[in-house]
Amino acid sequence: MDFRLSEEHDMLRKMIRDFAKKEVEPTARERDEEERFDRKIYDQMAELGLTGIPWPEKYEGIGSDYLSYIIAVEELSSVCASTGVTLSAHLSLASWPIYMYGTEKQKKNFLTRLAGGEALGAFALSEAGAGSDVASMEMSAKKDGDAYILNGNKVWITNGGVADIYIVFAKTDPAAKHNGITAFIVEEGMEGFSIGKKEKKLGIRSSPTAEVMFENCRIPEENRLGDEGDGFKIAMTTLDGGRSGIAAQAVGIAQGALDAAINYAKEREQFGKPIAHNQGISFKLADMATEIEAARLLTYKAAWLESNGYEYGKASSMAKLFAGDMAMRTTVEAVQVFGGYGYTKDYPVERYMRDAKITQIYEGTNEIQRLVIGRMVTE
Ligand code: CAA
Questions:
Q1: Second label for 328, Cα 20 to 30 Å away, from 160, 188, 229, 338?
Q2: 260 — phi, psi (to 5°)?
Q3: Is there a catalytic annotation at residue 222?
Q4: Nearest alpha carbon to residue 246 among 53, 103, 81
Q5: Torsion angles phi and psi, residue 25, rounded to 5
Q6: HSE-up of residue 329 (Cα within 13 Å, Cβ side)
Q7: Element (H, E) at 32
Protein backbone atom coordinates (compact mmCIF):
# COMPACT_ATOMS: atom_id res chain seq x y z
CA MET A 1 0.00 0.00 0.00
CA ASP A 2 1.34 3.42 -0.98
CA PHE A 3 -0.48 6.57 0.09
CA ARG A 4 1.73 8.92 -1.95
CA LEU A 5 0.30 10.48 -5.07
CA SER A 6 2.03 9.60 -8.32
CA GLU A 7 4.28 12.19 -9.93
CA GLU A 8 1.59 12.80 -12.55
CA HIS A 9 -1.06 13.47 -9.90
CA ASP A 10 1.30 15.69 -7.95
CA MET A 11 2.13 17.77 -11.02
CA LEU A 12 -1.53 18.05 -11.94
CA ARG A 13 -2.37 19.24 -8.42
CA LYS A 14 0.34 21.92 -8.58
CA MET A 15 -0.85 23.07 -11.99
CA ILE A 16 -4.49 23.32 -10.86
CA ARG A 17 -3.55 24.99 -7.58
CA ASP A 18 -1.59 27.66 -9.46
CA PHE A 19 -4.47 28.18 -11.88
CA ALA A 20 -7.03 28.32 -9.05
CA LYS A 21 -5.00 30.85 -7.05
CA LYS A 22 -4.22 33.04 -10.06
CA GLU A 23 -7.41 32.92 -12.12
CA VAL A 24 -10.26 31.73 -9.90
CA GLU A 25 -9.69 33.00 -6.37
CA PRO A 26 -9.30 36.73 -7.14
CA THR A 27 -12.91 37.04 -8.38
CA ALA A 28 -14.54 34.38 -6.17
CA ARG A 29 -15.99 36.83 -3.66
CA GLU A 30 -17.28 39.23 -6.29
CA ARG A 31 -18.86 36.44 -8.38
CA ASP A 32 -20.51 35.10 -5.23
CA GLU A 33 -21.98 38.50 -4.39
CA GLU A 34 -23.14 39.17 -7.93
CA GLU A 35 -24.35 35.56 -8.48
CA ARG A 36 -22.34 35.67 -11.67
CA PHE A 37 -21.16 32.66 -13.68
CA ASP A 38 -17.99 33.39 -15.65
CA ARG A 39 -17.70 31.36 -18.84
CA LYS A 40 -14.14 32.63 -19.27
CA ILE A 41 -13.03 30.50 -16.32
CA TYR A 42 -14.59 27.44 -17.94
CA ASP A 43 -12.79 28.26 -21.20
CA GLN A 44 -9.51 28.55 -19.32
CA MET A 45 -10.13 25.16 -17.71
CA ALA A 46 -10.71 23.77 -21.21
CA GLU A 47 -7.35 25.15 -22.36
CA LEU A 48 -5.68 23.29 -19.51
CA GLY A 49 -7.48 20.06 -20.47
CA LEU A 50 -9.54 19.95 -17.27
CA THR A 51 -12.89 19.67 -19.07
CA GLY A 52 -11.93 16.24 -20.40
CA ILE A 53 -9.54 14.92 -17.74
CA PRO A 54 -10.58 11.25 -17.66
CA TRP A 55 -11.57 10.69 -21.29
CA PRO A 56 -9.36 9.19 -23.99
CA GLU A 57 -7.56 11.53 -26.35
CA LYS A 58 -9.64 10.30 -29.28
CA TYR A 59 -12.61 12.08 -27.62
CA GLU A 60 -10.55 15.22 -26.93
CA GLY A 61 -9.81 14.18 -23.36
CA ILE A 62 -6.35 14.08 -21.79
CA GLY A 63 -6.51 10.36 -20.97
CA SER A 64 -5.97 10.71 -17.24
CA ASP A 65 -8.04 9.03 -14.49
CA TYR A 66 -10.84 9.73 -12.00
CA LEU A 67 -8.39 10.54 -9.22
CA SER A 68 -7.06 13.42 -11.35
CA TYR A 69 -10.60 14.69 -11.79
CA ILE A 70 -11.17 14.47 -8.03
CA ILE A 71 -7.97 16.41 -7.34
CA ALA A 72 -9.07 19.08 -9.82
CA VAL A 73 -12.47 19.53 -8.14
CA GLU A 74 -10.82 19.62 -4.71
CA GLU A 75 -8.29 22.27 -5.67
CA LEU A 76 -10.83 24.47 -7.45
CA SER A 77 -13.26 24.17 -4.52
CA SER A 78 -10.60 25.21 -2.04
CA VAL A 79 -10.84 28.70 -3.53
CA CYS A 80 -14.29 28.67 -5.18
CA ALA A 81 -16.82 25.89 -4.60
CA SER A 82 -18.97 27.16 -7.48
CA THR A 83 -16.18 26.57 -9.97
CA GLY A 84 -15.61 23.14 -8.41
CA VAL A 85 -19.18 22.04 -8.99
CA THR A 86 -19.30 23.49 -12.50
CA LEU A 87 -16.52 21.07 -13.41
CA SER A 88 -17.87 18.21 -11.32
CA ALA A 89 -21.38 18.33 -12.86
CA HIS A 90 -19.91 18.74 -16.34
CA LEU A 91 -17.57 15.76 -16.04
CA SER A 92 -19.28 13.25 -13.82
CA LEU A 93 -22.97 13.94 -14.47
CA ALA A 94 -23.06 15.02 -18.11
CA SER A 95 -19.98 13.53 -19.78
CA TRP A 96 -19.67 10.25 -17.85
CA PRO A 97 -23.03 8.77 -18.94
CA ILE A 98 -22.23 9.51 -22.60
CA TYR A 99 -18.81 7.89 -22.22
CA MET A 100 -20.34 4.89 -20.47
CA TYR A 101 -23.61 4.37 -22.32
CA GLY A 102 -23.33 6.40 -25.54
CA THR A 103 -22.99 4.99 -29.04
CA GLU A 104 -19.75 5.71 -30.88
CA LYS A 105 -21.60 8.36 -32.86
CA GLN A 106 -22.86 10.03 -29.65
CA LYS A 107 -19.36 10.00 -28.21
CA LYS A 108 -17.90 11.54 -31.36
CA ASN A 109 -20.63 14.15 -31.53
CA PHE A 110 -21.26 15.06 -27.89
CA LEU A 111 -18.43 13.74 -25.70
CA THR A 112 -15.73 15.33 -27.86
CA ARG A 113 -17.42 18.72 -27.60
CA LEU A 114 -17.79 18.36 -23.85
CA ALA A 115 -14.28 17.06 -23.27
CA GLY A 116 -12.65 19.71 -25.43
CA GLY A 117 -14.59 22.41 -23.62
CA GLU A 118 -16.45 23.69 -26.65
CA ALA A 119 -19.61 22.63 -24.77
CA LEU A 120 -20.55 22.66 -21.09
CA GLY A 121 -22.71 19.84 -19.72
CA ALA A 122 -25.60 19.50 -17.27
CA PHE A 123 -27.74 16.70 -15.82
CA ALA A 124 -31.51 17.07 -15.53
CA LEU A 125 -33.03 14.47 -13.23
CA SER A 126 -34.87 16.13 -10.33
CA GLU A 127 -38.37 17.53 -10.55
CA ALA A 128 -40.37 19.70 -8.15
CA GLY A 129 -42.14 16.61 -6.83
CA ALA A 130 -39.37 14.07 -7.44
CA GLY A 131 -36.12 14.78 -5.60
CA SER A 132 -34.93 11.85 -3.48
CA ASP A 133 -37.68 9.69 -4.98
CA VAL A 134 -36.35 9.69 -8.54
CA ALA A 135 -38.79 7.08 -9.85
CA SER A 136 -41.78 9.32 -9.12
CA MET A 137 -40.78 11.74 -11.90
CA GLU A 138 -43.55 12.89 -14.19
CA MET A 139 -41.76 14.23 -17.23
CA SER A 140 -42.87 12.28 -20.28
CA ALA A 141 -41.24 11.24 -23.54
CA LYS A 142 -43.63 9.91 -26.19
CA LYS A 143 -42.36 8.13 -29.27
CA ASP A 144 -43.38 9.83 -32.51
CA GLY A 145 -41.89 8.27 -35.62
CA ASP A 146 -38.12 8.60 -35.41
CA ALA A 147 -38.28 11.06 -32.53
CA TYR A 148 -39.48 11.51 -28.94
CA ILE A 149 -41.67 14.37 -27.74
CA LEU A 150 -40.59 15.60 -24.30
CA ASN A 151 -42.96 17.39 -21.93
CA GLY A 152 -42.32 18.47 -18.34
CA ASN A 153 -40.02 20.52 -16.14
CA LYS A 154 -36.77 19.74 -14.33
CA VAL A 155 -35.51 21.72 -11.33
CA TRP A 156 -32.26 22.35 -9.42
CA ILE A 157 -30.19 21.96 -12.55
CA THR A 158 -26.54 22.80 -11.93
CA ASN A 159 -25.14 24.67 -14.98
CA GLY A 160 -28.79 25.20 -15.99
CA GLY A 161 -29.09 28.05 -18.46
CA VAL A 162 -25.36 28.14 -19.25
CA ALA A 163 -24.88 24.54 -20.41
CA ASP A 164 -24.94 23.46 -24.04
CA ILE A 165 -25.68 19.75 -23.60
CA TYR A 166 -28.11 18.27 -21.05
CA ILE A 167 -28.67 14.65 -20.03
CA VAL A 168 -32.41 14.52 -19.44
CA PHE A 169 -34.52 11.75 -17.90
CA ALA A 170 -38.17 11.18 -18.79
CA LYS A 171 -40.78 8.44 -18.61
CA THR A 172 -41.39 6.52 -21.81
CA ASP A 173 -43.56 3.99 -19.92
CA PRO A 174 -45.05 5.49 -16.73
CA ALA A 175 -46.67 2.19 -15.66
CA ALA A 176 -43.27 0.47 -15.55
CA LYS A 177 -42.02 2.89 -12.80
CA HIS A 178 -38.19 2.49 -12.46
CA ASN A 179 -38.07 0.48 -15.65
CA GLY A 180 -40.05 3.06 -17.61
CA ILE A 181 -37.45 5.87 -17.45
CA THR A 182 -35.31 6.73 -20.48
CA ALA A 183 -32.33 9.08 -20.84
CA PHE A 184 -31.88 11.63 -23.64
CA ILE A 185 -29.20 14.01 -24.83
CA VAL A 186 -30.73 17.45 -25.32
CA GLU A 187 -28.96 20.40 -26.88
CA GLU A 188 -29.49 23.98 -25.89
CA GLY A 189 -31.50 25.75 -28.60
CA MET A 190 -33.72 22.78 -29.50
CA GLU A 191 -37.26 23.90 -30.17
CA GLY A 192 -39.52 23.50 -27.16
CA PHE A 193 -36.60 23.60 -24.69
CA SER A 194 -36.29 26.68 -22.50
CA ILE A 195 -34.81 27.89 -19.24
CA GLY A 196 -37.12 28.77 -16.35
CA LYS A 197 -36.51 30.26 -12.94
CA LYS A 198 -32.94 30.82 -11.83
CA GLU A 199 -32.64 30.01 -8.12
CA LYS A 200 -31.35 32.57 -5.61
CA LYS A 201 -29.24 30.51 -3.28
CA LEU A 202 -27.50 30.54 0.11
CA GLY A 203 -24.21 29.30 -1.34
CA ILE A 204 -22.44 28.27 -4.55
CA ARG A 205 -23.93 31.46 -5.89
CA SER A 206 -21.72 31.79 -8.95
CA SER A 207 -22.79 28.34 -10.12
CA PRO A 208 -26.16 28.85 -11.81
CA THR A 209 -28.99 26.56 -10.70
CA ALA A 210 -32.07 26.77 -12.89
CA GLU A 211 -35.29 25.13 -13.93
CA VAL A 212 -35.31 23.71 -17.46
CA MET A 213 -38.59 23.32 -19.30
CA PHE A 214 -39.76 21.13 -22.15
CA GLU A 215 -42.87 21.84 -24.15
CA ASN A 216 -43.43 19.46 -27.03
CA CYS A 217 -39.67 19.34 -27.44
CA ARG A 218 -38.82 16.99 -30.31
CA ILE A 219 -35.67 14.93 -29.72
CA PRO A 220 -34.36 12.75 -32.54
CA GLU A 221 -34.23 9.05 -31.66
CA GLU A 222 -30.46 9.08 -32.20
CA ASN A 223 -30.23 11.32 -29.09
CA ARG A 224 -31.66 8.59 -26.85
CA LEU A 225 -28.96 7.44 -24.44
CA GLY A 226 -29.09 3.67 -23.95
CA ASP A 227 -32.28 1.74 -24.52
CA GLU A 228 -35.79 2.67 -23.52
CA GLY A 229 -36.17 1.85 -19.83
CA ASP A 230 -32.43 2.12 -19.04
CA GLY A 231 -32.78 5.62 -17.57
CA PHE A 232 -33.03 4.75 -13.86
CA LYS A 233 -29.93 2.57 -14.03
CA ILE A 234 -28.08 5.26 -16.01
CA ALA A 235 -29.04 7.90 -13.44
CA MET A 236 -28.07 5.76 -10.44
CA THR A 237 -24.71 4.65 -11.83
CA THR A 238 -23.94 8.22 -12.90
CA LEU A 239 -24.66 9.41 -9.36
CA ASP A 240 -22.47 6.63 -7.93
CA GLY A 241 -19.45 8.37 -9.44
CA GLY A 242 -20.78 11.92 -9.16
CA ARG A 243 -20.92 11.58 -5.39
CA SER A 244 -17.14 11.32 -5.08
CA GLY A 245 -16.98 14.61 -7.01
CA ILE A 246 -19.15 16.25 -4.34
CA ALA A 247 -16.99 14.65 -1.65
CA ALA A 248 -13.96 16.27 -3.33
CA GLN A 249 -15.78 19.58 -3.42
CA ALA A 250 -16.47 19.26 0.33
CA VAL A 251 -12.83 18.41 1.08
CA GLY A 252 -11.70 21.42 -0.96
CA ILE A 253 -14.11 23.80 0.79
CA ALA A 254 -13.03 22.54 4.22
CA GLN A 255 -9.34 22.80 3.35
CA GLY A 256 -9.81 26.37 2.11
CA ALA A 257 -11.58 27.27 5.35
CA LEU A 258 -8.91 25.59 7.49
CA ASP A 259 -6.06 27.33 5.65
CA ALA A 260 -7.75 30.69 6.19
CA ALA A 261 -8.38 29.89 9.88
CA ILE A 262 -4.77 28.80 10.49
CA ASN A 263 -3.37 31.96 8.89
CA TYR A 264 -5.72 34.12 10.91
CA ALA A 265 -5.03 32.29 14.18
CA LYS A 266 -1.29 32.77 13.74
CA GLU A 267 -1.66 36.51 13.06
CA ARG A 268 -4.47 37.54 15.37
CA GLU A 269 -3.19 38.51 18.81
CA GLN A 270 -5.26 38.71 21.97
CA PHE A 271 -3.99 38.80 25.56
CA GLY A 272 -0.51 39.44 24.14
CA LYS A 273 -0.09 36.34 21.96
CA PRO A 274 -1.42 34.83 18.73
CA ILE A 275 -4.74 33.09 19.37
CA ALA A 276 -3.24 29.94 17.76
CA HIS A 277 -1.25 29.54 20.99
CA ASN A 278 -4.45 28.92 22.92
CA GLN A 279 -5.45 25.29 23.13
CA GLY A 280 -9.08 26.31 22.64
CA ILE A 281 -8.09 27.35 19.11
CA SER A 282 -5.27 24.93 18.30
CA PHE A 283 -7.38 21.90 19.33
CA LYS A 284 -10.12 23.12 16.99
CA LEU A 285 -7.59 23.41 14.16
CA ALA A 286 -6.22 19.95 14.98
CA ASP A 287 -9.69 18.39 14.82
CA MET A 288 -10.45 20.19 11.56
CA ALA A 289 -7.18 19.03 9.95
CA THR A 290 -7.75 15.45 11.10
CA GLU A 291 -11.31 15.27 9.82
CA ILE A 292 -10.30 16.76 6.46
CA GLU A 293 -7.60 14.14 6.08
CA ALA A 294 -10.04 11.34 6.89
CA ALA A 295 -12.53 12.67 4.32
CA ARG A 296 -9.78 13.06 1.72
CA LEU A 297 -8.69 9.44 2.19
CA LEU A 298 -12.26 8.17 1.74
CA THR A 299 -12.66 10.34 -1.35
CA TYR A 300 -9.38 9.32 -2.96
CA LYS A 301 -10.16 5.68 -2.22
CA ALA A 302 -13.49 5.92 -4.03
CA ALA A 303 -11.76 7.56 -7.02
CA TRP A 304 -8.97 4.98 -6.98
CA LEU A 305 -11.52 2.15 -6.97
CA GLU A 306 -13.31 3.71 -9.95
CA SER A 307 -10.06 4.37 -11.82
CA ASN A 308 -8.96 0.76 -11.34
CA GLY A 309 -12.20 -0.90 -12.34
CA TYR A 310 -13.43 -1.96 -8.89
CA GLU A 311 -16.94 -1.51 -7.46
CA TYR A 312 -17.05 2.01 -6.01
CA GLY A 313 -20.70 2.86 -5.25
CA LYS A 314 -20.50 2.27 -1.50
CA ALA A 315 -17.14 4.05 -1.17
CA SER A 316 -18.44 7.01 -3.11
CA SER A 317 -21.57 7.32 -0.92
CA MET A 318 -19.45 7.00 2.24
CA ALA A 319 -17.05 9.67 0.98
CA LYS A 320 -19.89 12.05 0.11
CA LEU A 321 -21.65 11.47 3.44
CA PHE A 322 -18.57 11.91 5.61
CA ALA A 323 -17.01 14.75 3.61
CA GLY A 324 -20.26 16.73 3.38
CA ASP A 325 -20.94 16.54 7.12
CA MET A 326 -17.27 17.22 7.84
CA ALA A 327 -17.22 20.31 5.60
CA MET A 328 -20.20 21.74 7.45
CA ARG A 329 -18.62 21.17 10.87
CA THR A 330 -15.25 22.47 9.73
CA THR A 331 -16.51 25.66 8.11
CA VAL A 332 -18.66 26.51 11.14
CA GLU A 333 -15.54 26.15 13.30
CA ALA A 334 -13.51 28.28 10.85
CA VAL A 335 -16.01 31.11 11.27
CA GLN A 336 -15.70 30.66 15.04
CA VAL A 337 -11.90 30.99 14.90
CA PHE A 338 -12.33 34.32 13.11
CA GLY A 339 -14.86 35.50 15.71
CA GLY A 340 -16.82 38.57 14.64
CA TYR A 341 -14.62 39.06 11.57
CA GLY A 342 -15.62 35.62 10.34
CA TYR A 343 -19.22 36.70 10.28
CA THR A 344 -18.47 39.47 7.79
CA LYS A 345 -17.83 39.49 4.07
CA ASP A 346 -14.33 40.88 4.69
CA TYR A 347 -13.07 37.32 5.06
CA PRO A 348 -13.88 34.25 2.95
CA VAL A 349 -14.93 31.88 5.75
CA GLU A 350 -18.60 32.91 5.74
CA ARG A 351 -18.69 32.00 2.01
CA TYR A 352 -17.07 28.63 2.72
CA MET A 353 -19.70 27.98 5.39
CA ARG A 354 -22.57 28.87 3.06
CA ASP A 355 -21.04 26.80 0.25
CA ALA A 356 -20.48 23.75 2.46
CA LYS A 357 -24.18 23.32 3.20
CA ILE A 358 -25.08 22.19 -0.31
CA THR A 359 -22.67 19.25 -0.14
CA GLN A 360 -25.01 17.66 2.42
CA ILE A 361 -27.94 18.12 0.06
CA TYR A 362 -27.27 17.63 -3.64
CA GLU A 363 -26.38 14.49 -5.55
CA GLY A 364 -28.43 12.63 -2.96
CA THR A 365 -28.99 14.11 0.49
CA ASN A 366 -26.81 12.69 3.24
CA GLU A 367 -29.93 10.91 4.49
CA ILE A 368 -30.13 9.17 1.09
CA GLN A 369 -26.42 8.27 1.36
CA ARG A 370 -27.16 6.63 4.72
CA LEU A 371 -30.03 4.76 3.11
CA VAL A 372 -27.80 3.53 0.27
CA ILE A 373 -24.93 2.56 2.62
CA GLY A 374 -27.36 1.05 5.10
CA ARG A 375 -28.82 -1.20 2.43
CA MET A 376 -25.35 -2.27 1.31
CA VAL A 377 -24.02 -3.13 4.74
CA THR A 378 -27.10 -5.11 5.70
CA GLU A 379 -27.73 -7.06 2.48
N1 CAA B 1 -26.64 1.08 -9.67
C2 CAA B 1 -27.31 0.20 -10.44
N3 CAA B 1 -28.60 -0.12 -10.21
C4 CAA B 1 -29.22 0.44 -9.16
C5 CAA B 1 -28.58 1.38 -8.31
C6 CAA B 1 -27.22 1.67 -8.59
N7 CAA B 1 -26.52 2.54 -7.83
N8 CAA B 1 -29.44 1.77 -7.36
C9 CAA B 1 -30.58 1.13 -7.58
N10 CAA B 1 -30.46 0.32 -8.68
C11 CAA B 1 -31.45 -0.59 -9.24
C12 CAA B 1 -31.91 -1.57 -8.17
O13 CAA B 1 -31.07 -2.71 -8.14
C14 CAA B 1 -33.31 -1.93 -8.63
O15 CAA B 1 -33.21 -2.85 -9.71
P16 CAA B 1 -34.33 -4.02 -9.91
O17 CAA B 1 -35.59 -3.28 -10.21
O18 CAA B 1 -33.78 -4.79 -11.03
O19 CAA B 1 -34.39 -4.75 -8.61
C20 CAA B 1 -33.82 -0.61 -9.22
O21 CAA B 1 -32.64 0.14 -9.57
C22 CAA B 1 -34.66 0.18 -8.26
O23 CAA B 1 -33.86 0.42 -7.11
P24 CAA B 1 -34.45 0.82 -5.70
O25 CAA B 1 -35.60 -0.08 -5.37
O26 CAA B 1 -33.33 0.88 -4.74
O27 CAA B 1 -35.01 2.27 -6.04
P28 CAA B 1 -35.65 3.35 -5.06
O29 CAA B 1 -36.81 3.97 -5.75
O30 CAA B 1 -35.86 2.77 -3.71
O31 CAA B 1 -34.54 4.51 -5.01
C32 CAA B 1 -32.63 5.64 -4.18
C33 CAA B 1 -33.29 4.30 -4.60
C34 CAA B 1 -31.22 5.24 -3.71
C35 CAA B 1 -33.35 6.31 -3.04
C36 CAA B 1 -32.55 6.57 -5.40
O37 CAA B 1 -33.82 7.01 -5.80
C38 CAA B 1 -31.67 7.77 -5.17
O39 CAA B 1 -30.44 7.68 -5.29
N40 CAA B 1 -32.25 8.94 -4.84
C41 CAA B 1 -31.48 10.19 -4.71
C42 CAA B 1 -31.50 10.94 -6.01
C43 CAA B 1 -30.36 11.87 -6.17
O44 CAA B 1 -29.24 11.59 -5.80
N45 CAA B 1 -30.61 13.01 -6.81
C46 CAA B 1 -29.60 13.93 -7.13
C47 CAA B 1 -30.03 14.79 -8.27
S48 CAA B 1 -28.70 15.30 -9.29
C49 CAA B 1 -27.94 16.56 -8.51
O50 CAA B 1 -28.16 16.84 -7.37
C51 CAA B 1 -26.91 17.20 -9.35
C52 CAA B 1 -26.40 18.49 -8.96
O53 CAA B 1 -27.10 19.42 -8.69
C54 CAA B 1 -24.97 18.71 -8.97
A1: 160
A2: -65, -40
A3: no
A4: 81
A5: -60, -45
A6: 15
A7: helix 25-34
Contacts of 110 (CB under 8 A, 6+ apart): 98, 102, 119, 165, 185
Distance 299 CA to ligand 1 centre (A): 20
User: Smallest Cα–Cα separation from 247: which of 321, 329, 332?
Assistant: 321
Packing angle between helix 81-88 and helix 231-267, nearest 10 degrees? 160
**AA letter at 46:** A
Distance between CA atoms of residues 341 and 343, nearest Å = 5
Q: What is the pLDDT of residues 132-151, one digit of tens each?
A: 999 999 999 999 999 999 99
Nearest to 251 by CA among 75, 55, 61, 48: 75
- Which of 178, 181, 360 most suits a substitution to test ligand 1, by most atoms within 8 Å of the C-beta? 178
Tens of pLDDT, residues 65-95: 999 999 999 999 999 999 999 999 999 999 9
